[in-house]
Design brief:
Length: 335
């Protein structure tokens, strides 16, 4: 089965559905025309006690085998929901296969992980907890620690009505992660009808984003996160880390030739504060990342002005968390 047969037709169907939803959202907001992107929707009701419990666990190294790492070790909520490293280092000094993606707006992704391994936060969280190079825990270890903790045993009993079990822990973490929405970006305000939210240059960047075809994959309210795409459609991207098989993409899961170099399309929300970029963090400059994507995915060489204009639009996708605009982690040069 070739790449187009495996992924192309489903892409068109998915894009059509997302476009329909976006058109409805744009129509309601007063923005003229058919819009492939939609405002970020408010998070639905989440049990506040479970959110609070999940947030406490998210920052607690009790979930790692050596009590050294927590979820925020790779997903810093005070910055962009990630860390400014190409690929983080796990237990015993082994570098992770992929760059740590932002955790913000993860509840709006249908596919999770760079290879789109999972469609459920609970399933992905379990994998992270048990992975020997991530948290390296076991279920007996986790449950014993939490039941022996006066604080956690009391919280789980009060919130779930019984001693902590596997499902409760996964539910608490996933509920907190679903709360990590970053609304009120300038672009969201623009789509909602505030024509003063974007400058003329930023609006022009949005036009280029649509006209050049970026929105064919980065679409919907999360501006990506739901589809698969081959990295290097028109030309091979720059060579990544030769010591990692991460460039193989979904092939490392499926063994199918058509899946070589295929990845989940990431969300572009908050992209200006989540460097470095791509599955292996090979580039720290957003303009450089835009130029690579234009050449490899669109078969287009951008002018300096077009690059600058597209970057200006992408910067309008930075939202707020707890009422504060997101900021990038300390800059470290990677390219």
């Amino acid at each position: 089965m070739n790449w187009w047969s495996r992924y192309g037709v489903p892409y068109l169907i998915a894009f059509g559905l997302s476009l329909g939803a976006a058109v409805l959202g744009a129509g309601a907001s007063g923005v003229e025309g058919r819009e492939p992107l939609a405002p970020l929707q408010p998070t639905g009701y989440l049990n506040p006690a479970r959110v609070a419990l999940g947030g406490q666990l998210f920052s607690d190294p009790i979930l790692s085998s050596m009590n050294r790492l927590s979820c925020i070790s790779c997903h810093d909520l005070t910055k962009g929901g990630t860390v400014n490293e190409r690929r983080t280092v796990g237990y015993k000094g082994r570098v992770h296969r992929f760059n740590a993606p932002t955790i913000f707006n993860v509840g709006s992704n249908y596919r999770l992980g760079w290879r789109g391994d999972f469609t459920s936060l609970e399933e992905q969280n379990e994998k992270v907890l048990l992975d020997e190079n991530l948290m390296a825990a076991t279920w007996p270890m986790l449950l014993e620690r939490l039941r022996n903790s006066q604080v956690y045993s009391s919280m789980f009993q009060r919130i779930y009505g019984h001693p902590v079990d596997r499902g409760d822990l996964l539910d608490a973490l996933a509920t907190f992660q679903r709360s990590l929405s970053t609304p009120n970006s300038p672009f969201d305000r623009y789509l909602a009808g505030d024509t003063n939210a974007l400058t003329s240059k930023e609006v022009e960047g949005y036009r280029l984003f649509k006209d050049y075809g970026c929105a064919s994959c980065h679409q919907g309210s999360n501006i990506g996160g739901n589809m698969f795409q081959k990295f290097g459609i028109f030309s091979p991207p720059p060579i990544g880390d030769s010591e990692s098989d991460g460039d193989m993409g979904r092939y490392t899961l499926t063994g199918q030739e058509a899946d070589k170099g295929v990845f989940r399309v990431p969300s572009l929300r908050n992209v200006a504060v989540t460097a470095p970029y791509f599955h292996d963090g090979r580039v720290s400059s957003l303009p450089a990342a835009v130029q690579i994507m234009a050449r490899s995915q669109l078969g287009r060489t951008l002018t300096a002005n077009d690059t600058d204009t597209l970057v200006a639009f992408l910067k309008t996708l930075t939202g707020e968390y707890n009422g504060h605009k997101l900021e990038a982690a300390s800059s470290t040069r990677h390219d």
